[in-house]
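[audit] Reproducing an earlier prediction to check determinism. Same input, same settings, fresh worker. If the tokens differ from the archived copy the diff job will pick it up downstream; this log only records the rerun itself.
[audit] input (215 residues):
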Amino acid sequence: MWKSKLIPTLTAVLLLAGTLTIPVSASNTATGTVTVGNYLNVRSAGNDGAPIVGKLYNSEQVSIIKNVNGWDEITYEGKLSWISGLYVVTGKAETVVSAVKSQLGVPYQYGGDSPYQAFDCSGLTMYAYREAGIYLPHSAAQQAFYGWWVSRYALRSGDLLFFTTDGSGKVTHCGIYIGYGKFISAESGGGKVMEASLSNKYWSAAFVTARRIIG
């Protein structure tokens, strides 16, 4: 379901597994988009137990001051406040998600990497990230070593998901998480680029790991 292909240049921000140290706090002055089914609580501090001071709704834009342990600091009604970063998509991640959604229904083809024509799984992820200026190899197994590990229970839109589809335990398939427990991938079985749910019994059992490329 993937094809090896040499890529002459790789973006410097993509580091092999084990070489990236994740900071507890990182400056991130970026614009984000809220992606929730209903609303997102705004809290006085960056934790689930902090008092709720307001609400944000789907597609609202926020200006992120910094991110600490998965919580985004913002200004809300003139005061510094916090929202869960799990429901906010920023810059390049938004570009990746938009790119992969635009290819829904495109036919599956082994070795395919052509938008609106044909994709295999890693060709699709390679294309979506290339739209955001990030270059990945045309190989699901190789892509699984880029960025840094993230728990399946702390996924953010734009994260890469990896699966084993032959029972070997080795990575043989990949897709892009789009929020709400769903992801998009080019499926050989379905014959096209499709949306699927991580809660589906097949995909849940086949899941191997997730990697975050965009911080």
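[audit] rerun output stored. Observation attached for the diff report: Confidence is low (pLDDT under 50) at residues 1-28.
[audit] end
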